[in-house]
Specification:
By secondary structure, this protein is α/β, with parallel strands linked by helices. The protein folds into 3 domains: 126 residues, Rossmann fold; 109 residues, Serine Threonine Protein Phosphatase 5, Tetratricopeptide repeat; 149 residues, DNA Cyclobutane Dipyrimidine Photolyase, subunit A, domain 3. It contains 17 helices and 5 strands. It has a 5-stranded parallel beta sheet, with helices on both faces. β2, α2 and β3 form a beta-alpha-beta unit. The radius of gyration is 23 Å and the shape is globular. Bound molecules: flavin-adenine dinucleotide. Flavin-adenine dinucleotide binds next to α7, α9, α12 and α14.
Length: 436
């Protein structure tokens, strides 16, 4: 154990990878001890080749440089596979003279489990563990129904959210004391040493343009527009910017539609806190026993963007090439997988988790369940998107498709849309509704 000086504070970074406007960092700074920033790669949460590992690694490198420039020694980064997190932590606790631990909350049940591990190790060492609220504007139990129970429907939740909102809630958190970083030299690990496969990722967008916000309500669904949406999702998912920043920008630009989208994020974060089991199972208990199918070949075609339905395929190819897919196409391709292919939503959720650079456990799970018709405030089971109608509405000139497909019309559709639609409706009526 390090015995020099008075010891250090451990700042446990997770989905809050920034040095500004962070509740946990402010609190650690106020404590006054030199801060050691720590990040553990949990490779079990995502596939080893998940794009977000690379995104996180790059952001950690930015933080590490910034901390070194402030005469700190750099971040403490290690890999913690499933089941070894507690051993990995114990080793760190035996090397560092840790006096307190600080962390921002993360709305992911797997992280809650890790907090319990951290808590018990802290207790064993007789040191405090401070967990601060930071991931959303309101803590999950603030916007609730008059009887104290959580909302299961977005509209009344959003109404209450707005009624209670005042701009100070979106003020940045500014520490009263300047953070002092621990100076112990630490080596920044290579991707290889962490067992992570490097992926192509665009730079993480952290700025939200004013014009975009003003035009957002009109542009957000346009597939042929150069900047229809903010692309702030990745920064929010890994915490490169705070949710306070995004909400403040929406209010300043008076972009109510953009704010509503951020409230959807809040809604899904609230839901996963109240119902952590939904990371794996349907939000609606009576829909938990559905026996979804899984046809290996069609799932692979869907992943590869080779279903023969050009808009679905174009979206899936943009996803695998860039780590991004517009919301409209996420809804279309999820609806296609769950309803027309009748495939278990969890397979789609895991595929998106591995591909999206903006993967967010609460939003991905919530949206997948919404699309499959088993989540909170979901699309009704009988709403099945027609890939042809979606083309007429959102890509009539084919600009988006031609950007991502070089073989449009060459792939035989893997299903007959009308037949698959009828079969789904019959299956749902007789196998799902009648079983209740
Ligand atoms: C099947 C499916 C899976 C999805 N998985 C994710 C995910 O893993 N991570 C994620 O952040 N979003 C997810 N979304 C929601 C949405 O598609 C993305 O947030 C959005 O496309 C990101 O692009 P943007 O940052 O340009 O968004 P903008 O349109 O500019 O919106 C701004 C921000 O609002 C939030 N937001 C917007 N729409 C939603 C929504 N429907 N639900 C929750 N938050 C929203 C996001 O934080 C987003 O960055 C998913 C949607 C579907 C249908």
């Amino acid at each position: 154990m390090r015995t020099d000086g008075v010891g250090v504070s451990l700042l446990w970074f997770r989905r809050d990878l920034r040095l500004e406007d962070s509740a946990a960092l402010a609190r650690a700074a106020e404590c006054g001890l030199p801060i050691v920033g720590m990040y553990a790669f949990h490779t079990g949460d995502l596939p080893a080749d998940a794009r977000q590992h690379t995104v996180v690694y790059r952001q950690l490198s930015i933080l590490d440089d910034a901390i070194r420039a402030k005469t700190g020694g750099g971040l403490l980064i290690f890999r913690a596979d499933d089941g070894v997190f507690s051993d990995a932590l114990r080793r760190r606790f035996s090397h560092e003279n840790i006096k307190a631990v600080f962390a921002n909350d993360v709305d992911d049940p797997r992280e809650r489990e890790r907090e319990r591990i951290m808590q018990s190790i802290c207790e064993a060492h007789g040191i405090p563990f401070f967990r601060t609220h930071d991931a959303t504007i309101y803590p999950h139990d603030t916007i609730v129904k008059p009887d104290g129970s959580p909302y299961g429907v977005y509209t009344p939740y959003a109404r209450r959210w707005r009624e209670r909102f005042h701009i100070e809630l979106a003020d940045p958190v500014i520490p009263e004391k300047k953070p002092v970083w621990d100076t112990t030299p630490r080596q920044f690990p290579t991707l290889k040493s962490l067992g992570i496969h490097e992926r192509e990722t665009p730079e993480t967008v952290v700025k939200i343009d004013d014009t975009l916000l003003r035009e957002y309500a009109q542009t957000r669904d346009l597939l042929d527009h150069p900047h229809p949406t903010s692309r702030i999702g990745t920064a929010l998912a890994i915490g490169a910017v705070s949710i306070r920043h995004a909400v403040r920008r929406a209010i300043e630009a008076d972009s109510q539609t953009f704010l509503s989208e951020l409230v959807w994020r809040e809604f899904f974060h609230m839901l996963i806190c109240h119902a952590p089991e939904t990371i794996q199972t349907a939000y609606q208990p009576h829909l938990r026993g559905i026996e979804w199918g899984h046809d290996e070949r069609s799932t692979e075609m869907w992943k590869a963007g080779k279903t023969g339905f050009p808009l679905v395929d174009a979206g899936m190819r943009e996803l695998s090439e860039t780590g991004y897919m517009p919301n409209r196409l996420r809804m279309l391709s999820a609806n296609f997988l769950c309803k027309l292919l009748r495939t278990d939503w969890r397979l789609g959720e895991r595929h998106f988790a591995g591909q999206l650079s903006d993967y967010d456990p609460a939003s991905n799970t919530g949206n997948w369940q919404w699309s499959a018709g088993i989540g909170a405030d979901s699309v009704p089971y009988f709403r099945i998107f027609s890939p042809t109608r979606q083309i007429q509405r959102f890509d009539p000139e084919g600009a988006y498709r031609s950007q991502w497909l070089d073989d449009e019309g060459e792939i035989e559709p893997i299903i007959d849309y009308e037949r698959a639609r009828r079969e789904f409706l019959t299956w749902w009526k007789y196998s799902v509704l009648w079983k209740q």
